[in-house]
Amino acid sequence: MILHKGENCRFVIKEPDIELMSPKTKKTIRHTNDIKGQVTTLFNPVSILSKSSVASSKEANGPIGKYLSNVLEDDKCGEKTFEKAELKMLTMAVLDALNDANLSAKDIDLLLAGDLLNQITSSSYLARELKIPYLGLYSACSTMTQSLALGACLIDSGHFNTVACATASHFATAERQYRYPLEYGNQRPPYAQWTVTGAGCTILTSDSMIQNDSKQKMQKITHTIIGKAIDYGINDINNMGAAMAPAAVDSMMAFFNEKNASVNDFDLIVTGDLGKLGSDIVRDLMRERGHELGQKYVDCGNLIYDVNQRCYQGGSGAGCSAVALNSFILDKMAKGEYNRVAVFATGALMNPTMCNQGESIPCISHGVIIENL
Amino acid sequence: MTKKKIDVKHQSKDEARNQRYNQYVNAVTPQTGTAKSLFHSFLVGGLICLIGEILFNLIRALFPAMSEIMAGHLMVMVLIVAAIFLTGLGIYDVMARKGGAGMFLPISGFANAMASASMEHKSEGLIMGTSVKLFSVVGPVLVNGIVWSSLAGLIRLLLP
After folding, report:
1. Statement: residue A191 has pLDDT above 70
2. Which of A33, A48, A336, B26 could covalently link to A219 via disulfide, CB atoms 3.0 to 4.6 Å apart?
3. Which tens digits make up the pLDDT trace of A84-136?
């Protein structure tokens, strides 16, 4: 087959082998009897080496404020714009987590990061600063558990030793991205949520890298649950809790069904940023499926703000689960108050354009099971 | 080769589920109390109109030679500047959270929408930021205002 013929040159490719190209030779996957579900049980649990959380003063005044590693003095972090402030916040979280583990950026094999902005801006600019291999992730507010699940699987595969997982969100940048200008005087419905200004970073490592003589228990990821995009037909962009609740329920049920587990197997079940309304819906939906969540269930969006802080249904945003997980939950686990925790961060894969076109909001919830081992 | 049929049954099952879920969500979602928000907007909107009226009378008293229309324009300008000033100080949106339509409907709401958009997008530069996005919130108000007032004018012209 001659592609191009010039005066001095002739580009020719070999005639394709007709027998190989014939449609009869179709590639098929060998079907096995054990069906691969959503849950991955890691061969070797992956350790959480260090963690760090950064949040603004508003979150610091909330119930989990005292567990935060860093608190911002002002929302702009001394930067000129809120976008740069978000980047600085995320950088701060990663560097602080590295510092905690006595590592430098060079020791990290891979950075898994994501945020809420277009083109996951903050994460990509963070990768530019750190100069390490980087995979950008997006699953809205579920990015923290997505990065943890992916990082744990990658480390378990043996090709990576140390992975940094980080996410951030900023109230001001999220408002600009999804809603109105900050100073615009509009009323929010009582079921709206408040985007958390915060960032969190968790550094995962394989057990072979740790010299642990003291036999102290470490927090380890034992299972990961990759969520499905679930859409129950909610198209109100203010009612995120109701849109995301079925996704959390779906991932939770996937784990309970595949592992024959129940609520009693956990010390704590955490969802990401459903807020008060969303977490009540989760309780209802789980009750319908025969699981009473009771006292063992908590929602990060519910945890992060005080009732008096006037944040409607509670916190939301990628930073919500990142901050709560990397401060309160892992601290309590380190103290031994909780030994087996399931974290299901929830994300609304919402696009304002599609919502204006009348589409409903698909939501996703990735989960990780963290245990003291 | 036979083409795969799309499972239509499955889709309708989803729709029934979504409908049921939406009904449930509507039942549990807290709503704004209509009477309460009406009262708040009436109070705040009325207050803004009262301030406008006082300003108008004050201007009339201070400059007796000024025509009524001119005094009205001056009053509106003072209200607009005040709204922009409050927006810049970050007070207007806090007031609007309570006042609702009372803060949004008067001319001050329009000023706030433009000022907030220009503040928000200032960081992207004067041309691509402020100039492009200045009308991002008030655009619908302008378009509808011009279209419907033109229509009203046309009707007025045809029906003397």
Report:
1. yes
2. A48
3. 999 999 999 999 999 998 999 898 999 999 999 989 999 999 999 999 999 99
- Say whether both A118 and A239 belong to one domain: no
Distance CA A130, CA A166 (A): 13
Residue A150: domain span = 41-202
Whether A189 and B116 lie within 8 Å, measured CB to CB: no
- Predicted TM-score (pTM) of this structure: 0.87
* H or E stretch at A105: none
In Å, how far is A185's CA from the nearest CA of chain B?
A: 4
Domain count, chain A: 2
Angle between helical axes of B8-28 and A275-288 (0-180°, round to 10): 130
In degrees and rounded to multiples of 5, residue A113 shows phi and psi of: -145, 155
Between CA A236 and CA A243 the distance in angstroms is: 8
- Environment class of A150 (CB within 10 Å of its CB; exposed 0-12, middle 13-18, buried 19+): buried
User: Which has the closest alpha carbon to B25: A303, A285, A297?
Assistant: A285
- Asked if A269 contacts A252 with a C-beta cutoff of 8 angstroms, the reply is yes
Question: Does A31 fall in a domain?
Answer: no
Q: Are residues A45 and A153 located together in one domain of the fold?
A: yes
Residue A67 belongs to a domain with what CATH number? 3.40.47.40
Q: What is the pLDDT of residues A238-268, one digit of tens each?
A: 888 999 999 999 999 999 999 998 899 999 9
In B, minimum Cα distance to A313 occurs at B30
* pLDDT at residue B30, rounded to an integer: 85
CA–CA min distance A51, chain B (Å): 33
* Together in a domain, A241 and A171: no
**Predicted local confidence at residue A369, as pLDDT:** 94
More confidently predicted of A32 and A236: A236
pLDDT at position B8 over 90: no
Indicate the residue among A175, A202, A229 that finishes a domain: A202
Task: Please tell me which of the candidates B88, B100, B112 has its beta carbon nearest to residue A184.
Answer: B112
* Residue of chain A minimizing CA distance to B137: A180
Residues A240 and A290 in one domain: yes
A105 with A168, same domain: the answer is yes
Structure ipTM: 0.83
